[in-house]
Design brief:
259 residues, mainly alpha, 10 helices, transmembrane, transmembrane helix
């Protein structure tokens, strides 16, 4: 059975899982927050305010992206879904049926991960659209929004690059969740990967190790400040690390005893 056929099967299974619905939480919260900002219930402040205290659509989208990413909301939700999608099936024995139909375990790991990445991209896209739509719905005629789509020095391409870097950073820890999920229960896998995420985020933010400046998260933080240095190394290193972790998980999965 080819990877593409397995991927389509896993993608359908992922959509049907109720726990996948938790990825709608950021979009719902973003719409509520935007409405609250428009009514004065919440106050938006920071260096991103421009033109006499107003924001363009792209600036507002990036402001909320920075807020949700900084709080670790995306990381928590995606790692949780990854833990249930892989470790949960191993612990519960549901993966037996998939193994009987497919046989080759390495392809199952890859297909499940690609299905999860597709779900992640969909959630990211929905979040961005909801934030942008909420901006034009609630903030365009307010004292905060200027009604412009982009701002000088910050275009749509910059926003998409920022989201891609966040995506790669979180994809690495989703792959790590798959890896530790081979040996640990879903909850322990979730906790282990989440602790790893927050530790790495802290080390990147504090600049403890100089080589972490080539990480996707570090480059995304500098991108918000208008700097694009170390972009190519960050993209390449992220893809390589994801491939290595996923490759190791695929090889070790072949030796795991499924009960």
């Amino acid at each position: 059975m080819e990877v593409w056929a397995i991927y389509k099967m896993e993608w359908i299974k992922t959509l049907k899982r109720k726990n996948s619905m938790i990825l709608l939480i950021p979009s719902i919260l973003a719409a509520i927050m935007t409405f609250a900002i428009s009514t004065g219930g919440l106050t938006l402040s920071g260096d991103g305010l421009a033109d006499g205290g107003t924001l363009s659509c792209m600036e507002f989208v990036m402001a909320l992206w920075g807020f949700f990413s900084g709080l670790g909301i995306w990381g928590i939700l995606l790692i949780l879904v990854a833990a249930f999608q892989f470790s949960g099936e191993i612990a519960g024995g549901q993966i037996k049926m998939t193994l009987l139909r497919i046989g080759k375990r390495g392809r199952i790991v890859l297909a499940k991960f690609l299905a999860l990445l597709t779900l992640c991209l969909g959630a990211f896209g929905l979040f961005s659209l909801v934030v942008g739509g909420s901006y034009y719905l609630f903030l365009t005629n307010s004292s905060i929004g200027n009604g412009q789509f982009s701002a000088p020095g910050f275009e749509l391409a910059d926003a998409m690059l920022f989201i891609l870097l966040i995506f790669l950073h979180l994809a690495l820890f989703m792959a790590l969740t798959f890896f530790v999920g081979l040996f640990l229960s879903p909850f322990i896998s979730f906790i282990a990967a989440l602790v790893g995420l927050f530790v790495v985020n802290y080390l990147i933010g504090s600049g403890t190790f100089s080589f972490l400046k080539y990480s996707a998260l570090s480059v995304s933080n500098h991108l918000l400040a208008g700097e694009t240095k170390h972009l190519i190394p960050a993209l390449l290193s992220s893809v390589l690390l994801i491939a290595l972790v996923l490759g190791a998980a695929s090889q070790l999965f072949k030796k795991v005893d499924i009960k």
